[in-house]
Amino acid sequence: MRVLGIDPGSETLGWGVVDGSGSKYALVDFGTVKSNTKQPFSKRLLNIYDGVADVMATHSPDVLSVEDTFYAVNVGVALKLGQVRGLMLLLAEQRGLAIAEYAPRLIKQTVVGYGNAEKQQVGQMVKILLGLKEVPKPHDAADALAIAICHFHHAGVQDRIDRAAKKK
Fold first, then answer.
1. Nearest one of 138, 51, 16 to 3, comparing CA atoms
2. Residue 66, Cα to own-chain centre: how many angstroms?
3. Across the chain, which distance is largest between two alpha carbons, in Å?
4. In which band, very low, low, confident or very high, does the pLDDT at 159 lie, cut at 50, 70 and 90?
5. pLDDT tens, 111-145?
6. Is 140 noted as a catalytic residue in this protein?
7. What digits encode the pLDDT tens for the residues 140-155?
8. Catalytic one of 7, 19, 134, 143
9. Which CATH superfamily is domain 2-167 in?
10. What separation in angstroms does the CA of 146 have from each of 37, 50, 72, 75?
11. Taking CA atoms, which of 15, 114, 120, 166 is between 20 and 30 Å from 54?
């Protein structure tokens, strides 16, 4: 299974591709899609769409794993992130990918063991779990890899539950 993790952002969107099955996985690639904040928001959305579409075409993921909605103090920021998330869901549906959404606290809990972990802690655990020499930079890409790793852990559990249910 190949998972594309997405850390949505309207200025910097992080992405990470991880390949494997169950709790055995390895890094394929990671990066960011940056947008020019001086452009109208609609142009930034197009840039994000095109950038992630290119990543999907290059890496052929089976699953899109994306951070679920969260509450933000600034309503404008929350709305923009919601629009970026919507683009990611649309791209995945257009390409027939399975979609998994995880709450930010669950991602941190799964990867670090603590739901209120700091970005540095997430980056360090991503480095360890993927056997990397250094923490992926920028943090948006490390977060996207954490989202992909989270899917491997939770998809594996769901797989075992489904298999057990079929045996009954």
1. 16
2. 4
3. 58
4. low
5. 998 888 888 999 999 999 999 999 999 999 999 99
6. yes
7. 999 999 999 999 988 8
8. 7
9. Ribonuclease H-like superfamily/Ribonuclease H (3.30.420.10)
10. 26, 23, 21, 25
11. 120
Residue with tokens 């909605």: 69
Domain spans of the chain, in order of start: 2-167
- How many angstroms separate the CA atoms of 29 and 165, rounded? 35
Query: How many Cβ atoms from other residues are within 10 Å of residue 162's Cβ?
Result: 9
Place of tokens 């594996």: 156
Nearest Cα neighbor of 62 from 36, 91, 10, 98 is: 98
Catalytic position from the list 62, 67, 101, 118: 67
Which backbone phi and psi does 156 adopt, to 5 degrees? -65, -40
Q: What is the mean pLDDT of the segment spanning 86-115?
A: 94
**Residues 22-79: tens digit of each pLDDT:** 778 999 999 999 999 999 999 999 999 999 999 999 999 999 999 987 666 778 888 8
Full-model pTM? 0.90
